[in-house]
Design brief:
The protein is an alpha/beta fold and 263 residues long. Helix content is 43%, strand content 14%. The longest helix has 29 residues.
Length: 263
């Protein structure tokens, strides 16, 4: 073998344990499967303590099992620090320490800002931003002790672009991005990277694009004339979750099909 030659393929996640939170839809399924196909054992959680979400999370887990990976599903409210800490502890004792955290849960309350209540605002922030903070904090403690970790937060680019009737959702996404950039600076010294994967108009993701009537409107602003598919994010996620992304910190990697800024 030549000097400097690699002994393993690029982006190999073999031996890693990944946790995908909010694993309740097509986007989280694609992300979890991508990690499993790259070699990682994959565990999943729900976004809320909800029976319907539990069924979806277990379905995603079963697909990872079919690839030959280990992992478990946990039904948990991601805004409850004690419940999340207990779930993380149980997963690490049962499977392995968590090396990769993907915060994939999204909830979108699409309505005019003037019609929204403070309670709805608080709920949107809790489900989309507080959940990311709670899960990241619970997992990062162990990552910092072990001097290695990858945290990837899925963020809608509506935090920047905006869209009609999406003020609550967009604000929650801005909070996630702000957390991402600062947490990466805090934890990078310990070999723990925190980055965001920015998504545009994607099928199967909560947000304005979930309204079928808006698809034709959005497609006018996409050069490829189609929304993104969850599978379009798989390669970017595997890269950010890999050892090769060790010098990528507090960044936003956008996968949006060159969505035009003025929708």
């Amino acid at each position: 073998m030549a000097a400097g030659a690699r002994r393993v393929p690029f982006f190999d996640l073999t031996g890693r344990h990944a946790l995908v939170t909010g694993a309740t839809g097509p986007l989280a399924r694609a992300l979890a499967v991508a990690l499993a196909e790259a070699g990682a054992d994959v565990s999943v959680t729900t976004l809320q303590h909800d029976r319907a979400e539990e069924v979806q999370a277990n379905s995603i887990l079963n697909e990872c099992w079919a690839i030959g990976r280990r992992g478990e599903a946990r039904t948990v409210d991601l805004t409850d620090p004690r419940a999340v800490a207990a779930a993380v502890d149980a997963l690490e004792r049962s499977i392995a320490p968590i090396d990769i955290l993907v915060n994939a849960g999204h909830h979108a309350n699409i309505k005019p800002a003037l019609d929204a209540t403070v309670a709805e605002w608080n709920r949107e922030i809790a489900r989309n931003a507080t959940a990311v903070f709670v899960a990241s904090q619970a997992v990062a403690r162990g990552m910092i002790q072990r001097r290695y970790g990858r945290i990837v937060n899925i963020v809608s680019i509506l935090y920047d672009r905006g869209a009609s009737n999406a003020a609550l959702y967009a604000a929650s996404q801005g909070a996630v991005l702000g957390f991402t950039r600062s947490a990466g600076i805090e934890w990078g010294h310990a070999g723990v990277t925190v980055n965001a994967l920015g998504i545009g108009i994607f099928d199967g993701v909560p947000g304005p694009q979930s309204d079928p009537e808006l698809h034709a409107f959005f497609e006018r602003y996409l050069p490829m004339r189609r929304p993104g598919k969850p599978e379009d994010l798989q390669g970017a996620l595997v890269y950010l979750a890999s050892a090769e992304a060790g010098f990528v910190l507090s960044e936003l990697l956008v996968v949006d099909g060159a969505l035009q800024p003025h929708m």
